[in-house]
Design goal:
The complex is a heterodimer of chains A (about 400) and B (about 160). Chain A has about 400 residues and is of the alpha/beta class. Chain A is about 35% helix and about 20% strand. A five-stranded antiparallel beta sheet of chain B has the order 8-7-6-9-10, with no helix packed on it. In chain B, strands 4-3-5 form a three-stranded antiparallel beta sheet. A two-stranded antiparallel ribbon of chain B has the order 1-2. Chain B starts with a helix and ends with a strand. Chain B has two helices and ten strands. Chain B folds into three domains: about 1-35, no CATH class; about 40-90, no CATH class; about 90-160, Beta Barrel (OB fold (Dihydrolipoamide Acetyltransferase, E2P)), CATH 2.40.50.840. The chains are: A alpha/beta (about 400), B mainly beta (about 160). The interface of A and B includes residues 17, 133, 149 and 252 of A.
Chain lengths: ~400, ~160
């Protein structure tokens, strides 16, 4: 049993179109810096977990692949899948393994090589992340379309506009431009978004996160190991909540909120000792799941950064930029940093580590006063949501 | 095998090409997999029989009266599988919608299609293609569920203005 679990090392590959590396090489690109920051070697790892949704890439036995490539055999391992929240699911496995005492040091690796398949095939496969039989087979819902159903409902209910959605993309590109690991390192304006072609109304091309190759790695350790190894630079996992939604969107109550997200947020806040009536008072910043622009705004509300129906005002008033009420996705988010499905949740953990330890690149470092960072990672369209709170001080 | 790759193999001895943008060497997979699943509908056969007659059927737990759409054969509220098939009122109100412009390749034979979710007057919600002008559609407007024929020749349901 370990009372507390720390993140003691992190690594991040360049996200983007990575035709220059194979899957194992892409994994090592984030594993190596994770080992180096933790000052550990592969032999020190008790257990490792790999989040990878796969399908579009050739190798299915990714844990075995990296056991071979990175000298992790014969240590125990597991591959986990929770659609776009796979990375947070892997962190949960690592966290519970350390917390239970089954392992002292766990390596968590998220990887996705989506561009081993042509884009149309990826669009086809990713659209199948809901109720395949009732919503894909006959109605051809795509991933943008599932979220667009929410985007439309939100606009109609609260009077938000497509321009408000565009503002999310503008912010995330603004910070993506300052993140050397991001897929898109350039700023855009509202016109760029508004003039881009429709993918699934109301979403246009620039409302959508891209198809990305990338990996991210985090090494977790027990409180005892942190002491034993004398590790100064680390962050603690203060709490994590996870929720599940129905497969069919038609079985949902609301399209302006993700029930799994509100459920997961409540659990995480409770566990981390955060007042859920005013969580921004406790947080220096957050990463939320902006696979599209509208879901970032819905996330503000599900996470209680503002009242229901006021999320679009936060972005309109630039309250989620650095210096605002709560900086959100200042690594570029999924939108500009890229969204390699299995790596995203782990990438959020890397960002929490960098922000809290003030190691973020110039122009995108938040002020760290409260010592806590939130990560919100959604799989499918609220089919799964993980909310994780990281902190500089253990509970 | 694509002619292009055949040519590359003849010329270079391997199915290795240069990525157009980066120039990085790429092995072109020789093994192609076509996926198409065989899915059991044995326990929801009445749904399709109903649809053929223009009716939208759901299931109802005989014990607690819970209505299910999409239909399911087991009621998790009472651990009971004694269900009956009931015709759902084919009218309701529109909840939300989208128009799918970029389609999956397997829907390539269709033009961009509007998709709607409606709440039926009986309670359950339903997701289907929307036959009507999406620009005129507003949440709360009255809609109906009707039967239609797909390009592939089979019968399906769709949502339309009432």
């Amino acid at each position: 049993m370990s009372e507390n679990v720390a993140v003691i090392g992190v690594g991040h590959s360049k996200f983007g179109t990575r035709k220059d590396v194979n899957i194992a090489e892409l994994c090592w690109e984030s594993m190596r810096p994770a080992f180096e920051t933790a000052n550990l070697e592969p032999k020190d790892i008790d257990f490792f977990v790999v989040s990878n949704a796969g399908m579009w890439s050739s190798e299915a036995a990714v844990p075995a692949l990296i056991a071979e490539y990175a000298d992790l055999a014969p240590k125990g391992s597991m591959r986990v899948e929770a659609a776009c929240a796979s990375g947070s699911a892997a962190i949960r496995i690592g966290y519970t393994a350390v917390k239970s005492g089954m392992a002292d040091i766990v390596l968590v690796l998220g990887v996705e090589k989506m561009q081993e398949s042509p884009n149309p095939n990826v669009i086809e496969l990713i659209g199948r992340f809901g109720s395949y039989f009732w919503e894909f087979e006959n109605f051809g819902l795509t991933f943008p379309a599932y979220y667009a159903l929410h985007g439309t409902a939100y606009m109609m209910k609260y009077g938000a506009t497509e321009e408000d959605y565009a503002r999310v993309a503008v912010k995330n590109h603004y910070y993506g431009a300052k993140n050397p690991y991001a897929q898109f390192q350039r700023e855009i304006d509202i016109e760029t978004v508004m003039k881009s072609p429709y993918i699934a109304w109301p979403f246009k091309l620039f409302d959508c996160s891209p198809i990305t190759d990338g990996s991210a790695c985090a090494i977790l350790a027990s409180e005892e190991k942190v002491k034993e190894l004398g590790i100064d630079e680390k962050i603690w996992i203060l709490g994590q909540g996870v929720g599940t939604g129905t497969a069919n969107l038609s079985r949902r109550e609301s399209y302006t909120s993700l029930a799994s997200a509100t459920y997961a947020a409540e659990q995480a806040y409770k566990m981390a000792g955060i007042d859920m009536d005013d969580p921004t008072k406790y947080l220096d910043g957050a990463n939320v799941h902006d696979c599209f622009t509208a879901p970032e705004i819905i996330a503000y509300e599900d996470l209680r950064f503002c009242k229901r129906g006021e999320g679009y005002k936060l972005i309109r008033e630039e309250q989620t930029y650095i210096g605002g009420k709560i900086p959100v996705n200042i690594d570029g988010g999924l939108k500009a940093k890229g969204h390699p499905i299995g790596a995203t949740g782990v990438s959020q953990a890397v960002e929490a580590y960098k922000q809290l330890l003030q190691k973020a690149e110039p122009g995108r470092q938040a002020d760290i006063n409260k010592g806590r960072w939130l990560a919100h990672n959604v799989g499918g369209t609220g089919h799964y949501t993980y909310v994780t709170i990281y902190g500089l001080e253990k509970r | 095998m694509k002619e292009e790759i055949k040519k590359v193999i003849e010329e270079t001895g391997f199915p290795i090409v240069q990525d157009e943008k980066s120039g990085a060497a790429q092995w072109v997979d020789m093994r192609e997999l076509r996926l198409s699943y065989i899915i059991s509908v044995e326990n929801i056969k009445p749904f399709y029989e109903g649809l053929k007659e223009g009716k939208l059927l759901g299931t109802k737990c005989k014990k607690c009266g819970r209505l299910f759409f999409p239909p399911q054969k087991d009621c998790p509220s009472c651990f009971d599988s004694d269900i009956e098939w009931v015709e759902l009122k084919n009218e309701g109100t529109l909840e939300t919608m989208t128009v799918v412009f970029v389609r999956p390749p397997s829907f390539g034979m269709y033009d961009p299609y509007p998709v709607a979710i409606a709440k039926l007057d009986d309670g359950p919600k339903i997701l289907a293609w929307y036959k009507g002008d999406p620009q005129q559609a507003k949440p709360g407007m009255r809609v109906k569920v009707q039967v239609c024929k797909r390009k592939e020749g089979y019968v399906m349901y769709e949502i339309a203005p009432a």
